[in-house]
């Protein structure tokens, strides 16, 4: 009877990268299969932002005003895009925590699989589903009157900034998920909800008290939303502060800083599980 032979461990940087990317592709395929086979998760993921658009756009929208004037639903949509990217962390935290609790993570760690590849597989799967969420939400925005006034190129640049924020937050979700139980992961929305409210997502910072305006303008989510409003040509652009006038730079800088911090923390935590 023949015995299975373990693959040779790569030694050169190029071989390690190829090994990690191959493992990441396999793991991401596994995660996407689980996602497709769970229709309840798909419905929750896709319906929640649509419900929020209808609720804020038509129910609360009549009582909202935009600094400088303009249609509130056009002001709202970039904020909804950003909030959806942030709320995606909830699913990341829960899935990572559930995999760790069910022994899936330990099984990966016992196999000749790249640790970076396993985590990157989770990132790829989350980025693909987030891209689908964003496309559906943009189509919903077109139905309620939102438009990208500065053309396709600027719209794609704004979408890129939104996905860059999501990429950074996936690493935050992985780091949290490796430290929490599934029950604790279920409460991940609690710190995220005020984070999305203390920003320029639903209300212009100019309409807030001075101390709250500073917090809202320096919120990483606000930078991405402000940059998207500039690129889309949406109403309600803030001004008067360094953060508001350099939103595009901050929309790139904040996610890069978050990634630099949480990517190595996630890998370190993954390698040190149960130690």
What attributes does this structure have?
mainly alpha, 275 residues, Transport permease protein, 73% helix
Account of the 3D structure:
The chain is mainly α. It has a domain at 18-55 and 70-192 and 263-271. It contains twelve helices and no strands. α2 runs antiparallel to α3, α3 (72-101) crosses α10 and α6 packs parallel to α12. One of its GO terms (cellular component) is ATP-binding cassette (ABC) transporter complex.
Helix run count: 12
Give a short account of the largest sheet. Answer: none
Gyration radius, rounded: 20 Å
Order of helices and strands: HHHHHHHHHHHH
CA distance, first residue to last residue: 37 Å
Please give the share of residues in helix: over 70%
Strand coverage percent? under 5%
Which structural class should the secondary elements be placed in?
mainly alpha
Unreliable spans are none
Mean pLDDT metric: 85
Q: Note the overall shape.
A: elongated
Extended strand count: 0
Task: Furnish the topology, listing elements before pairings.
Layout: H1 13-36, H2 39-60, H3 72-101, H4 104-110, H5 115-143, H6 151-177, H7 182-185, H8 189-197, H9 210-217, H10 220-232, H11 242-245, H12 247-271
Helix pairs in contact: 1-5, 2-3, 2-5, 3-5, 3-6, 3-8, 3-10, 5-6, 6-10, 6-12, 10-12
